[in-house]
Amino acid sequence: MSDFSTDWLALREPADRRARSPRLVEGLLRRLAVLTQPPGAESSPSPRTLRILDLGCGTGANFRYLAPRLGLVPGAGPWVRQDWICVDRDRKLLADLIHRTADWARGLNLTTSLHGEGLIIQGVQAIPGEQGVGGVQGDHGDRGVPGFQGAQGKIHGVQGVQGGPAPTTHGRVRTRDLDLARGAESLLLGAETLVVASALLDLVSANWLAGLLRACARSRSHLYLALTYDGRIDLFPDHPHDGTLIALVNAHQGRDKGLGGPALGPSAPACLAELAAGLGFALEAADSDWVLEPDEPELQAALVAGWAVAAREQVPHGPESRGLDEAICHWHEQRQAQIAAGLLQIRVGHRDALLSPEREPGPRVYRAEGSQAAPLRSTSM
User: Fold this and answer.
1) Core-most of 219, 244, 272, 287, by most CB within 10 Å?
2) Is there a contact between 301 and 239 (Cβ–Cβ < 8 Å)?
3) What is the largest CA-CA distance in the chain?
4) Average pLDDT over residues 284-289
5) CB 350 within 8 A of CB 230
6) Cα Rg for the chain, rounded, in angstroms?
């Protein structure tokens, strides 16, 4: 599923990377470890291939974020062999995925080779005693917050093979041109496939999401679902029309996006929790808000422009709505002027979720990070 340009996806990728919850990725590694290791065993490279299905993959941001943390980058995690199937209906984005991912891999000193319409990525595992994983940005992106490089190796304790060459990492990336509107039945999930998606759930219908979770329950698949919009938008400084515009944008989010009926929009996190409970998944969730500072004017400008278009599409036609339409245009002009002057800060609320199949129904729900984020304040500018 995708109606997004490569430019927009490239623009948002750094913000997405910063926003994701590292705690949930660490939880994902712990949950996956039970597939190959008994409780309490020291983490070590797994001989098994981890199969991952990336839904609505776009240009591959999910792969570039998750694959190294799972172990494709030497020394990072136990899954040194990964097989990714990246699904989208936009062939142009799928082609761009291969090129961008090959460039990304070469930047990490991994070797790449084309294999049909897919990509093979290989590397040599870290030598025992080496610290960290060079060349991988932190979980909080370019702002220098400690993240992947220092913490991951320490947390997961991955070591090379004592007294000899360490194992080789091997990743296969295949693309699949598929319209997700066909539903989960078209996905052909294998047993214990890891299912991942980013910025997708708010676009799908409740029926579509229920079908996906039923399919994952049957295959006993874990799900890592990142960056689901939850309806929270906070801007600083305030504007008198913010509330009206946000309400219109959230209403627009509920329009049918071609995935089984009216989209869940901001109700997606709550719907996911309810469905997960009924199907026996353990659910862990955390905030993954975008916080866009004045030094990101391109992303801010694109976001504000998109909101204005969505809000105007919600305004009924007719002379009685002219005042509201003009108010939206005025809001947009003022916000763009603030962006150009470096005066605007934006927070957009998202939720990450990790779902794991349990043997017994009635999952526990973990919410270590609530969705009551502090409002933006002038002290952070």
Assistant:
1) 272
2) no
3) 79
4) 98
5) yes
6) 21
What lies within 8 Å, CB to CB, of 98 at 6+ separation is: 60, 114, 117, 118, 119, 173, 175
pLDDT of residue 46: 64
Could you write out the DSSP letters of every residue in 209-236? HHHHHHHHHHHT--EEEEEEEEEEEEEE
**350 within 8 A of 269, measured Cβ to Cβ:** no
According to the model, what pLDDT value does residue 75 have?
61
In this structure, the dihedral spanned by the alpha carbons of residues 41, 65, 254 and 258, taken in order and rounded to 10 degrees, is -100
Closest listed residue to residue 57, CA positions, set 93, 12, 105, 22: 93
Res 85 pLDDT > 70: yes
- The distance from CA 306 to its chain's CA centroid, rounded to whole angstroms, is 20
Q: Note whether 233 and 249 are within 8 A (CB).
A: yes
Task: List Cβ neighbours of 169 (8 Å cut-off, separation of 6 or more).
Answer: 71, 72, 73, 74, 80, 81, 110, 121, 122, 123, 124, 125
For residues 18 and 299, the answer to whether their CB atoms sit within 8 Å is no
At residue 72, the 3 state secondary structure works out as coil
Token match 């979980």: residue?
A: 139
How far is the C-alpha of 374 from the C-alpha of 20, rounded, in Å? 17
CB-CB contact of 225 with 355 (8 Å): yes
Supply 64's token pair: 């570039």
Q: DSSP secondary-structure letter at 282?
A: E
Separation between Cα atoms, residue 252 and residue 233, nearest integer Å: 14
Q: Reply yes or no: is the peptide bond before residue 22 cis, omega within 30 of 0.
A: no
> What is the mean predicted confidence (pLDDT) over 235-264?
96
Domain boundaries, the chain: 6-229+265-289+349-368
The tokens describing 223, both together, are 């799900």
For the chain, give the mean pLDDT: 82
Give 121's pLDDT tier (boundaries 50, 70, 90).
Answer: very high
The Cα–Cα gap between 122 and 170 comes to 5
The one-character DSSP state at 188 is -
Residues in the chain: 381
Q: Which CATH number among 3.30.1340.30, 3.40.1080.10, 3.40.50.150, 3.40.50.1240 corresponds to the domain 6-229+265-289+349-368?
A: 3.40.50.150
CA–CA separation, 372 vs 250, rounded Å?
Answer: 18
> Angle between the 297-314 and 322-340 helix axes, to the nearest 10 degrees?
180
